[in-house]
Write the structure tokens for this entry.
Amino acid sequence: MKIKSNGIDIEVDDSGPGASRPAVLRALLRRPADHRQAAAVAHYVKLFKLIGSPAFPMPELDLRERIEQAFARGFYPVGTLRQTLAVVADTTRAAQLSKLRVPTLVVHGQADPLVPYACGEDTARRIPGAQLGALKAWATTGPPVWCCACWTPCYST
């Protein structure tokens, strides 16, 4: 599939079971309207609303506050671009997973529009002996932190 983002045509492999939705990819690759912090915050609010968990939507004011706090800690758009390009360019991670020899629990949300559940299944399948923890309503942003306590028995033994 071809996606046009910021005037650039990007070819994305959408043939596999873990292909993200085109709207999510477009939003992820889009830039804020301008270089002001207010525009960037508005951009990330839209993005995180799109990739967030439908069962655990974060109120927009809380989401905006978290994003503003992240900006206060440090915002480096070039670093974000490098990270995105590294993810897209990765061709060796999957093959190297078979070399892991540690107890592994892969936890993945079944409602994730950014990194579909099939990707979590694929990761668990590639790691010898790995277990897959499916979180029915989770997406990229997941539920409130207190929900994680229910997983403690799965990885504490």
